[in-house]
UniProtKB/TrEMBL annotation:
Keyword Amino-acid biosynthesis among UniProt keywords: no
Protein name: DEAD/DEAH box helicase
Domain Helicase ATP-binding positions: 236-426
Organism (species): Salmonella enterica subsp. enterica serovar Vitkin
Highest taxon, organism lineage: Bacteria
Record key words, sorted: ATP-binding, Helicase, Hydrolase, Nucleotide-binding
PROSITE patterns per UniProt: HELICASE_ATP_BIND_1, HELICASE_CTER
Phylogenetic placement of the source organism: Bacteria, Pseudomonadati, Pseudomonadota, Gammaproteobacteria, Enterobacterales
Amino acid sequence: MFEYGVPEGDHIELPDDLDLEMQFPLAIGTVGDFASEVVAKTIGNSIEAQSQTPLDEVIFSAQVLQAFDDSLLNKELSFNLRILAAAGFYLGDVPGNAAVQLSKLSQLDFPKHDTLAIAVKTAMDRPWEHTNETLESSRAKDILDVLCQHFRNGRNGRQKAYNAIKSLREWAYCHASAHDLLMADLLGAISATRIANSAWTLLPRYSNLPQEKWETYLSRSMSIKEMWPSQRLLGEAGLYKGTSGVVQMPTSAGKSRATELIIRSAFLSARTKLALVIAPFRALCQEIANDLEKAFKDDGYDVNQPSDALQPDVEFDFSDLSDFLDLESGIFDSEIESKPQVIILTPEKLLYILRQEPDIVQKAGLVVYDEGHQFDTGSRGVTYELLLTSIKRMLHENAQSVLISAVIQNAASVAAWLLNDGSKVVSSRALQASRLIAFASLPKGKDGQLQFNVASDSDQKFFVPRVIVSEKMPRLPKERKDRFFPTQESGSIALYLSLRLLKNGGVAIFTGRKASAAKIVREAVEDIFRRGISLEPPSANSDPDEIRRFVYLFERNFGANAYLTQAATLGIFAHHGNTPQGVRLAIEYAMRQSLIRLIVCTSTLAQGVNLPIRYLLVTSAMQGRESIKVRDFHNLMGRAGRAGMYGEGTVIFTDPRLYDERVAKTHRWKDTINLINPDSAEPTGSTLLSLFDPLRNDLGTVILSSPSPAEVATYIVNDWEALLKWVESVPINLPKENFSVTSLIEQLKSKKKIIEAVESFLMTYRSDVQPETFVGNSRELVTETLAYSLATEEQQILLTDIFESVARRIELFVPDTAVQQRFGRTLLGIDQALAIESWVTTNANALEGATSADHLFDVLWPLLVLLSSEKRLSDTVPNGALMTLALGWLAGDSFAALLQRLDKLGAYYPYGTNQRKFDLDVVVDLCEQTFGFEFALLLAAVKESFLAFSSEQAGEVFRGYADLLQKRLKYGLPNQSCIAFFEAGFAERVIAQCLAEGMTQDAVQVSFDARNMIRENPERFEIMLQGFPSYFYDVFKTITAP
């Protein structure tokens, strides 16, 4: 109740006959018994070591001690409670929770004469940093000295430590008080466990490498010192020796450090000098690259992140990697004088590289798939699956593949497909942070409550009273009606609770849609804090300098009066698909560093980025018309209570109707309970198989039985236009079934994207064989997909038929094998590739006559509008408004300036039966998605076609303009110098331009040169970055680090 800010007068009184302190003897005794058993086993006392206290009892005892400390019922016991809880968690193999208790312990004054207790704290808390000169107990000092030397240089091995532990134990059992006896056993048990789990002890064994190989790394202060349970599990499974595997472990279990160790082991053992890390999102790629660059900066390993643009990167000539692998002997050559390197990239970028330089995968001795469950995530899922299918075909048999996911339910099935061995699964459900589940409730006549543990029959249910107390807000001028905060809406309650809780740690409000997130942020700015309420804004618990930096960046991006800027002033930040990439990176970093406390987000929070929060407030589990997947929700829940930071997280469903109407509307309650239960998570599927999902009505309650899903898929391949005409008749023939043409076409377009991905995939593997051989090869290729391995026998037949139909269509419309292979490199389907080829042929002279990237864009605009899926390009009024927007984007204009361009033109677009003006969110979406992704993809295909027909000289000129234009479209930047700084790590439009403009006399062309310029002029760049969010200064420090 203290945690939730409930006034002491409203606290629920404990029963008179309940004395919580009576639980102490059992809790302390359990932790003490376990410690005694560990020491006995360590020193060889076989009789005492035979008894074994279960680990779950040790962890529960630590939780009891922690809970009493959190209750603040007796603050005089805080030191003992925290040190015992920390010891219990540590010995219970929950080092994340132990770290949280140690952090809380450091906030207290230590009892100066409790030498053994201080020694216990030191043994758990970075013993390699302590000199221990002030300890009164020589025996405790001996133990800590051995620990210190062990972690610093790997020397003073186990026996010396065990002798010191034995000496302390013998003294304690003869002369110590009960308290000192307990502390002596804890010190001995913790010290023995630290050595047993230390990296010095385990990594040489797990990697099958001598300790000398690890010595340079492990002697560093920032190296891993102790291996967490998940990291040990990977070691036991052989992943540090080069064994492949599918890793399924919960979020916050230490997988990121384990990935670093897998890569480091591969390089130290000289199994390879090239590792590929594939991550599904740009933000996650950036985070991984930043972390690995810091981890490997003293090793001489190159960590590279190619640009996300679909073009060859000037700084990455993959042909130079040919020496990494002796293809004839099949051994990854370690004698060649070349730096090991890690390349981190998205599936789309790697697929593009494979289509241009297929040998790259053969040169990699290690491939890591982070967040590797992405096979059933729409059109991107098809790309991902076909990429892995390609890699499987190309990867050398001695190479190591590691797929990592927190939420993959059918890991054995995926391992059987990817690794040809379903047993190569490393799985654990051991959590390093606990989570509570609560539901908001508004009982009649009472203030709002939070109901805990009501979703489980096995957990003890309880509630916290008076957590939601509505207050009347001041009226605005001319208002007559009183308004209250919060209302009964879930978004309003979520905002209210966040304001009450954020003093305890980071808070994320989850909404299913971007519009819902924007609504919460807007209402906070334009209504709640405009009127004035009793609760402080989040900025009061945030770093004031960081808030100032964000406000400055937002003013430069969105304008001083924009709701996003005003929200930043209050310390409220939106984090969703329409948040510009650089801003998202800065927000994520600030949350990790506890510089800000509140974000309002969509499922972007579940996209793998390390974004630690203490509270997750769920306004709705719906994403549009569909509920969020159980596995995605658990990935989202994994952000709450990050190990080592909070220890415990709380997930609160803020829609009071869920709990209050659980009897009347049981289906909604059951759906929510199902969402919470990890056993209900869907197995990882394949978007390819969704080809055979039936078409549904707008409500998802009625399916079309005729034509069958297989017939629909065949129509998509062979007669798309006829299928579209048929769709128009469905609502007429079934007037009462809630089918709409719009919804049916959306479903069909999703299926068509799957077919287009298959077309591109098959064209890539088109060699100079005869047509029937190519068709036969397509039937073989389908058997190599995950979809085929997961499919029923009937689905396998249907899938094979579809691949064959696609192959025959390719032969019919693109009979030239060279053209097929070229089309395959574009990542587009046949129809778009043919349309582009025809247009390029017709407009070749205009393309060749382009004199700049801007001129080329003018020439291409009609084609881009024609092929884009963005409806606003064709229905916006006035007609040229969005071209004006695109030109401003290419010029590097801020989003505020871009919106002003549209406002001056009086631009609007149809919205249902009405019209709607453009706002910031729509402008950002158009710029980053339509211009930055879709236009850039189409431009890559235009370049392929033009280069096939042009002279070498004309082709080189065109390539230069096209590549520059593509990156300018991707990033919204005016020139190559800005792009260089953007790709050097300052992935924010305003900042990249600021840095480029600050060095006008020394323009750079590539990110390598930009980094060198920063190293040569650190003072100038540090001054330029001072006013921007801390993330970008961290990038600067990483670049300039010695």
